[in-house]
Amino acid sequence: MIKSINIIIFLGLLYLVFYPVFIYASELSIHLSRSRIKWGETITLEIEAMNPINEDIEGHIIVSFSSDVIILNKDKESKIYYKGTNVNTREIYSSEKDASLKSLDGCCIVTKHLMVKNSYHKWPAFRKKKMTLKLLPTATGINKIYMRAFFKNNEYLINIPNHPAYLDQQNYPVEEIRFLVDDSNNFSKNLKTIVKHPKISEYDDIIDTLETLLKHPKDIDSFFLMSDMMCEELNVCRFSHYFQMNGHIKMRSDTSWYSNDSLYRHVGAGPHYNGFAGIRINNKVFLSRKCYFEGAYEALISGGYTLQKKNELMTLYPYLFKSINTLNSPMDDSTRLMDLSASIQNESNIQYYRADRFSLTIQSGTKTFLSIGRQAVTWGNGFLFNPIDIFNPFSPTDIERDYKIGDDLLSIQTNLFDQINVHTLYVPRRNSDNKIEWKQSSLASKVHFSSGSTEFDIMLGYHYQDFVFGLGSSGYLGGTAWRINGLLSVLDDKNKSHKEYYSIVANIDYSWIWWHKNIYAFIELYYNNIGTNYLIDIDPNLIERIGRGELFTLGRYYLGGHVRIEFHPLFNFYLTIIDNLNDFSASIQPRGVWDIKENVQLSFGTNLACGKTDSEFGGFIVPGTKYINKPQNSVFLWLTYFF
Predict the structure, then answer these.
(1) Over the stretch 280-333, which tens digit does the pLDDT of each residue have?
(2) Which residues contact 239 (CB under 8 A, 6 or more apart)?
């Protein structure tokens, strides 16, 4: 039964990913790089249309905006009509008849909103054309974009789309897409200071730097250059210091339960009610144009019935719990270079305090960056599974991925010939005697380069006495992005069951518009050779990597899928499924995220583990007992305030 359900679910995910390729064959294909941005950030809009007529014909792609945006980059065919300009009706409307009805004098109209049009005198039959725009929105809140294409000759005209769900400023049917722009304090304040100065137009160097800053809002050199010029030439020295501070306060409540045949039946299988509260503060201070400090501190407290029942169970079976991990312990820094964490644990709650970022970055020239201290680094292109990411990767079942755990390391990153990026990491670690030991440390380098639209990664390193080699690549196939990563580890211990460990992950993702909703989905396949089909025969290499926090699953073959549906710019639905293809057990995680206000977010969902007995997610019988150790099921509710 479970096997059939899993097969049906993943066939549905495959249908969601590939179905739009066919349904939009004669419609607009629309892709917006991001549906939510901070003020001052840019987005890219791509609109693709196909000539649905079996002849070469005149065709146009038109887009208009409900609020002000700045067009940073456009196609050579793109013509911009600014708000309030007079436009010849023949350039806008599909026929002379339409133009005469909509124009006051039969000649021209005044545009209500900014509009961009790509025109093609002879659009080949059944061929696709694409409009690409890089945009800088200047209005906060919800913004709307209206898009359509039309084709015409002397006999007929075709407007795409042809449904009347939305109408643009010319009252033609259009597709509508929305995105949300949040406020960004420093950049907004600085820009207002600049543009309101009465003599700003007299200084060409300030104007040129302002244009650079608008195109690249995170360009630190332009930011400091603008600050210097405003102070020296205009005597405006109140320009905001480049200091960034943000963070969040999070409150969480969850209810979990275990099966009646689990170990917890002796103390109560549930429901168990739990609570969590935490605060995280991030700051970034630029000491100069080429030197900045980054820090982050977090304080958390969690507790509830699950912790209490675990303590009761450990009292009943102390020896059994030495070999069974039923609840994650608080993280510590015992093996890291710096001990910047502390925890207090009692019968009812755990308090946890940690400096998760503490690093200094120095830029040498324009192409080399050196960072030292506690920071987070991610390598590889996996979504759920990421073999190349051997430094504190996320668990495949983690749905809270705001911040990756920081590690103490030295990072050197340089760009060669503007085409090749070389990134080298050294991660020193301590042994059980609290001494830094080479056998516990890591040294690795990754080279990233591209050829056309395809990107490549090559990784070589030393990691816990093992030599590691990784390869990765990513690219595009039509409107679909693909990625593949692999890792090979030559194991140091010749007495272990394997001489090498290798794993590979491949995924594809796609985004599209369906029923006027933004939809995104991916599918991922993962394999590693030290996984097991039988939970009683677990490879020591697997246990070692699970203990180090590099692997989180027991099997060899996994199929993962994820879909996100934007029902509204402020509400998104997510569904993640991870299926163990060896025993057909699965983890199912549906959830919703609602942006209640600009800085307040509500998340709710459930974590479900399903499968037969003696499977990874269905649970396995504890040796020597008749009880099952199975992942808990839970429902949760999070409330987060961002500042």
Answers:
(1) 999 988 787 788 899 999 999 998 888 888 877 777 776 665 544 444 455 778
(2) 190, 193, 226, 227, 230, 231
Q: What domains can be seen in the chain, in order of their start residue?
A: 26-182 (2.60.40.10), 185-243 (no CATH)
Lowest mean pLDDT among 105-114, 120-129, 465-474: 105-114
Whether the CB-CB separation of 223 and 239 falls below 8 Å is answered with no
Distance of alpha carbon 227 from alpha carbon 289, whole angstroms? 11
* Beta-carbon contacts of residue 102 (< 8 Å; ≥ 6 apart): 89, 93, 109, 170, 171
Q: Which two tokens stand for residue 602?
A: 């509500």
Q: Is 351 exposed, middle or buried (0-12, 13-18, 19+ CB in 10 A)?
A: middle
Distance separating alpha carbons of residues 393 and 391, to the nearest angstrom: 6
Which alpha helices (H) appear in 235-304, and where do they start and end?
none
Is the pLDDT higher at 462 or at 67?
462
Stretch among 163-167, 344-348, 531-535 having the lowest mean pLDDT: 163-167
Q: 7 — phi, psi (to 5°)?
A: -65, -40
Query: What stretches of 376-465 adopt beta strand conformation (E)?
Result: 407-416, 420-427, 442-451, 454-463
Give the position of tokens 């030599």: 467
Q: Which of 190, 197, 181 is nearest to 219 (CA)?
A: 190
CA distance 131 to 71: 13
What 3-state class would DSSP assign to 195? helix
3-state secondary structure of 266: helix
Give the integer Cα–Cα distance in Å for 491 and 488. Answer: 9
* CA neighbor of 557 nearest in space, from 524, 588, 591, 587: 524
Element holding 291 (H helix, E strand):
strand 291-304
Lowest-pLDDT range of 254-268, 480-494, 515-529? 254-268
Helix (H, G, I), strand (E, B) or coil at 582: coil
pLDDT single digits (tens) 370-402: 999 999 999 999 999 999 999 889 999 998 888
The region that residue 373 occupies, defined by phi over 0 for left and psi between -120 and 50 for alpha, beta otherwise, is left
